[in-house]
Amino acid sequence: MLITHDTRCALDTVVDLVNTAPEDDTAADGLPDVPALERFVREHEISDVGALSELDLSAVRRVRERFARIFAAPDARTAAGLINELVAAAGTTPRLTDHDGYDWHVHYFAPGASVADHLAADCGMALAFFVVAGERERLRRCEAPDCRRAFVDLSRNRSRRYCDSRTCGNRLHVAAYRARRREAAS
């Protein structure tokens, strides 16, 4: 599957956005305030965003929840319906642009759109490309029992199981090894 630079950036952004949500009632929100949202926008180089407010923060959190539902969708039809609703609500307006030294690419948000609509449109379309390509199963949650972080499996054979093999994957492999050693010693 060919993934363009702007689609890859949108995928990274949507994954990072979904992963800012607290995993349970005891975890902290990764977007606790407007300065955190400003950092998120800056770190992900989200263009055409003006001054941000509490209203923007609330709207982005709602969009984040809608993206989380897409990652949790049981099948392509459900994911497609959720993506269609999200993108339609954002008022998409595809347009070609070559800003900030990047080659020509498509922005799907309307000029002057809120940051929430910007994320919904561009990131929603990136996820839509995966559904269209028959690759929705690549939108995953980490299989580690104590981690439910989102990720996009871009491995050649669709075999990635953990959000990060160095942390979650390695931790589970070490635990399984120790369990086997304990069992063998018994």
Automatic annotation (TrEMBL):
Name all Zinc finger CGNR domain ranges.
138-181
User: Which ranges form a coiled coil?
Assistant: none
Q: Pfam families, alphabetically?
A: ABATE, zf-CGNR
**InterPro entries noted in UniProt:** ABATE (IPR010852), ABATE_dom_sf (IPR023286), Znf_CGNR (IPR021005)
Q: Per its UniProt entry, which superkingdom is the organism in? A: Bacteria
**SUPFAM superfamilies linked:** Jann2411-like
Its recorded name reads Zinc finger CGNR domain-containing protein
Native organism is: Streptomyces echinoruber
